[in-house]
Every structure is written in C-alpha cells, then in structure tokens.
Amino acid sequence: MEAGTLVSDREDVSVLFEQQKHSRKCQELSGLFSSVRRVRGDGNCFYRAFCFAYLESLMHDVKALQRFKEKIITTSEHLSSAGFDQSSFQLHLNTVLNVIEHCEGSECDEMLFRFFNDRMTSDSVVQYLRLLTSAHLQNHADDFCNFVEAPSLQEVEAMGMECDHVDILALTQALDICIHIVSMDGEDGQLVHHVIPDGAEPSMHLLHHVSHFSILGPRPPP
C-alpha cells in the first residue's frame, strides 16, 4: 500500500500472495474472489474494513442506505444505556451519519473512498464502531460472559487495538449485519469460512490472515 493510504483501490486478489500463488489456499481464494481492497494494518483494520465494505455493498441503493442511517441513529440509545455520556460519542456519530449521507449522492463511490482515506474522518468512524461494540457487550453481558478470552472494554474502545471473535460477534449483532470471513490461517491447506451469524446471507466478504483483515470482492457467478 502507498504511504498514507488506509483503504486501497480494488486490486487483483493475486497481489496478496504473489510468492504463494500456486498454493492450494491461494488457488481456492482466487477461484472465489477476483479483487481485494487492502486495509492499513494499524490495529483498526477490522472496523475500517467492516464499515467500508458494508457501505460499498449499499451503494446506489437509497432505501438500504436510509435504513442503515436510521439504524445508526438508534444506536446512540444503546451507548447511552451502557453509560456513555453523549459528549463522548456525538461527534463520532455525526461523522458516521455524514459519511452515509454522502453515499447517497451521484459521486458516492469517490466520496466513500475519499472519506475512508481521510485519517480524521476514517478514525472517527472506527471510534464510533468501537464504542458501539463496547456498549453492546455491556448491554448484553449475560450473552458474552462465557467467552473465556473476551477482551477488556478498554481494549475494545481503544484505537489501535486488534479485535477478536467476541468484538466481531458483538458488532454484527449490534448492527444486524451478516459477514463472511475467509481465514487463511487453517493448517490443513484449505481456507476456513466463517459466516456470522451462521446461515444468514453475508453483506460483505473479509479476508483474515495473520491478525489482519482485507476486503474481498467475489467473482460473479458463471
């Protein structure tokens, strides 16, 4: 990635593993996905990839964007019920809403790319998603109490801290969004596929490899 880039343009998926392109995993990945958007590995890659990929999936669908905007507005209540003071999240909430509103315009693709590569805007979106994840974990503590390796809330909320399965589960539940995570980290030579929640139709496809997330673009059906 170029210096300063947070989310890249679409590239051929082969750029990820040029030295291993003949491996079984890479061939399987190339068979399923044609493109990738690389995301800056700064500890925030999951949240950045998640929001960019979801908004990109809604592009040119005004009704879907409006529903998502309404959903985001209601999440402020979840943060308040978890004990967050409105002053701690209102600016970040306004940033998210502003990005969504610009996705409804005629130059939405360019605007989305520009927003997510502007450090201040992009990080503000990430911060809101982190606070929302924390709020969901607090408001549904009984659902997550059996996760032995659950992160502390401070780790969830802090910028630059890598997420784990519990964070991903909490955010997808909070926004009612289904994701497909393809992991390169399996040991049997095959990709590992996780659809969260199980059985739903994913809105996005993310690649997980060595604690890092990228955005995958599926090949069109034959």
Please give the largest β-sheet: 6 strands, mixed
Spatial strand order of the main sheet? 1-2-6-5-3-4
Second CATH tier, the architecture: Up-down Bundle
CATH superfamily: Peptidase C65 Otubain, subdomain 2
* Low-pLDDT sequence parts: none
What percentage of the residues does DSSP assign to strands (E)?
5-15%
What features would you describe in this structure?
The protein has a single domain (41-201), classed as Up-down Bundle (3 helical TM bundles of succinate and fumarate reductases). Helices cover 48% and strands 14% of the residues. The chain contains nine helices and six strands, in the order E-H-E-H-H-H-H-H-H-H-H-E-E-E-E. It has helices at residues 24-32, 45-58, 62-81, 90-102, 108-116, 119-139, 141-144, 153-157, 165-175; strands at residues 11-12, 33-37, 179-183, 192-196, 204-209, 212-218. The two termini are 31 Å apart.
Question: What are the main properties of this structure?
Answer:
3 helical TM bundles of succinate and fumarate reductases; 48% helix; 222 residues; single chain; 9 helices
Please outline what is shown here.
With 222 residues, the protein is of the alpha+beta class.
Topology:
Blueprint (H helix, E strand, L loop, with lengths): L10 E2 L11 H9 E5 L7 H14 L3 H20 L8 H13 L5 H9 L2 H21 L1 H4 L8 H5 L7 H11 L3 E5 L8 E5 L7 E6 L2 E7 L4
Parallel strand pairs: 3-5
Antiparallel strand pairs: 1-2, 2-6, 3-4, 5-6
